[in-house]
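User: Just a sanity check before I run the rest of the batch. Below are the structure tokens for the first item. I only need the designed sequence back.
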């Protein structure tokens, strides 16, 4: 047998082995530092980019910008509408033309669809202008206009398909104890007005001028179920139209039945139009003062009817309706107002905490 001694590696020594270990450890530390810096860059980019994810950790900001109670509530709503976004949404591509062309929602857009919804909700909730939204999201003002028109029409169609009007059995099953004196109440009705720009045409001025507001307005009727959910929204009418005429033209008469009852304000003189019972505060009818029964009836109805005014206030928490609606926005104002009403049922909790189980 011939024994061959192994070759000696003159390049490796105990000192150089320690050095290699140190370099490996330094390399691992540098890789961790690079990862940390990458995360920091992503965080800073997110801070500079205006989008929904930027506010996911702040429910107060989500409430301010979208009127949804929290980021979790917003995500629940998004999951409801997301399947229809890619299949049913029609994107407006030319809002200036009288015959606007439309196409199915493209696969790539300036913003992700969820951020487009965020932009639309900001337009309603904060009342931001097109210029301001364009600067925030880094897109052109015309793109902002098209996004708003697209989502207004989409949500108007999608949410409007959901049944608002509840069957009589469902309403009575959820009747709060406060309505024990009026157990057959199906809906509580009230009208509300929003300011609009005065048109130059004198005939139109006379039609939209409201003597109650002393301004040009648009008027709608909103109805809520006794447990607080919005169950009826009419179209917007000229501000000069009376509550009785809006009640007649809104279409609510066709869904009322004789064994139902509606609750209205004193000015709703619809007894001859409604095919059901009408709960309304009684008039003094020339008497010097009301009798005790009428006083008690007035107090009971007023205490319950106030909830429809609270619900309307939720709609008008959207700052878009605070100012005067320009005539340029009147082309989609019906859609915007109805969508704002529909969203109230998704954005908020019950009007009264005790009604959470209703």
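Assistant: Here's the designed sequence for the first item:
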């Amino acid at each position: 047998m011939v024994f061959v001694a192994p070759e000696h590696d003159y390049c490796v020594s105990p000192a150089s082995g320690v050095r290699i270990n140190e370099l490996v450890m330094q390399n691992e530390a540098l890789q961790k530092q690079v990862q940390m810096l990458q995360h920091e860059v992503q965080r800073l980019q997110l801070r500079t980019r205006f989008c929904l994810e930027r506010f996911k950790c702040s429910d107060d900001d989500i409430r301010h910008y979208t009127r949804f109670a929290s980021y979790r509530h917003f995500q629940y709503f998004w999951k409801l509408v997301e399947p229809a976004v890619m299949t049913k949404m029609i994107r407006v591509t030319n809002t200036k033309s009288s015959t606007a062309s439309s196409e199915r929602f493209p696969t790539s857009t300036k913003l992700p669809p969820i951020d487009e919804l965020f932009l639309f909700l900001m337009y309603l909730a904060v009342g931001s202008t097109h210029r301001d939204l364009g600067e925030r999201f880094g897109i052109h003002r015309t793109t902002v206009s098209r996004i708003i028109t697209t989502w207004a029409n989409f949500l108007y169609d999608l949410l409007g398909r959901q049944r608002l009007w509840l069957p009589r059995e469902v309403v009575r099953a959820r009747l709060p104890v406060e309505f024990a004196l009026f157990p057959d109440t199906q809906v509580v009705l009230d009208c509300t007005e929003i300011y609009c720009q005065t048109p130059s045409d004198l005939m139109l001025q006379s039609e939209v001028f409201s003597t109650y507001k002393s301004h040009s307005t648009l008027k709608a009727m909103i109805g809520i179920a006794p447990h607080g959910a919005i169950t009826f929204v009419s179209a917007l009418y000229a501000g000069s139209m009376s509550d009785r005429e809006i009640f007649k033209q809104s279409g609510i008469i066709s869904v009322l039945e004789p064994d139902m009852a509606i609750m209205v304000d004193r000015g709703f003189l619809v007894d001859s139009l409604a095919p059901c019972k009408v709960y309304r505060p009684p008039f003094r009818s020339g008497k010097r003062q009301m009798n005790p029964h009428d006083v008690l009836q007035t107090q009971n109805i007023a205490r319950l009817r106030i909830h429809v005014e609270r619900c309307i206030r939720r709609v008008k928490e959207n700052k878009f309706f605070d100012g005067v609606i320009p005539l340029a926005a009147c082309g989609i104002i019906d859609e915007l107002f109805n969508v704002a009403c529909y969203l109230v049922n998704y954005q908020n909790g019950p009007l009264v905490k005790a009604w959470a189980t209703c």
